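Polysialyltransferase family glycosyltransferase: structure tokens wanted.
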Amino acid sequence: MKDVFLAFTPYHILLACALIFDMEQSSEIDLIIFRDFFEADKFANSIAKTEIADRADIYIRKGTYESRTYNSYIQRFIRKDSELNIQQENIRFIKNYFKENPDIHIVYSFNDARGECQLAYYLNKKRGGTNIYVEDGFAVYSTQTSPSPSIAGRVYNRVYNSPWHQFIKYHGGYKYTSKIMCLKPSLIRDELKCKPIQEISRKTLCNLKKNSITDILLHDYRFSRPKNIDTLIILPHSEFLQQHSYFEPYVDLIEKILAITEDLGMGVYVKYHPREKNYFLQSIDRSVELIPQGLPAEALFLHLVNYNPKLLLGDISTSLLTGKIICESTSVVSLLNLYGKDYFNTSDFMIKAGIFVPSNIHELKLHIIDILNEGL
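Answer:
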């Protein structure tokens, strides 16, 4: 019997690798990577140098990062390089893949809103297989729901993706999802508690360091251990900021934070979102070190597991949660309430997970000073 993982981000791939290391070595496994992020091929090639290549066959497919954006729905439909048509090409691949692999038993997906994953779940369910949704971050803990699709989108999916397509309001909610795997089962959103839930342990995450995946990734991305990594800032995608009119307030906030860390003599490292194309911090005239965009923050956390950074700053990034779990002595802070409202309704979850959520910049500054004083 065969297990298959469908991965769209570096974090998905790392988590898939961690779960694969937990499986019996006799298992037959396929890891399918979609190019939804910067330097996907480079990342896949690095993974292929590790022990994962002995445990799984790795496939790489087109993804949304290499697509072009078209305003006209007609152009989205007819242009081969549109996100719509790239996904349809992937859907044809999934259909053929299942025809060629009648022994598939378990499908692991990190985004059951995607057509590729929904089709794989549908085909696997028809065979009596098991479909496992593996968390993609805060979505499984938030009370936020996705907005309804446009009329054109509904018509398109009814014509091309019926009967398996389903609009889902939250990740993990697809009708053919059999089971949920997540980092914090006790805090999962109420709608998902009706399904079997399995915890992903810290030990499972640390399998990646044990099996040298993080060392290979840092070597291939030419990123050695930082000497003065007091503060890590994980940046949100600029499209999210612009969509909610948060872009200017966010940049202003980062300038204030960098002024604070500079005054306190703290070394700062910054990481862009893996799908980012707008490198907006270039306009800030301050000295910060950049973490390679294609390198998952989790790989760095695992590399720093024995010498944790003092401070990890982000907004609703998955990296806040994984950072809190891996770097146990690091103070993890969400900045979301400092530049906008809690759009995804995650503040309560963050507080319960041990993430600090300041209400103003003065409160953040006092927190940073307290963290530094604790180390004296």
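The two ends are 55 Å apart (CA to CA). The chain has two domains: 2-207, 223-374.

Cheers.
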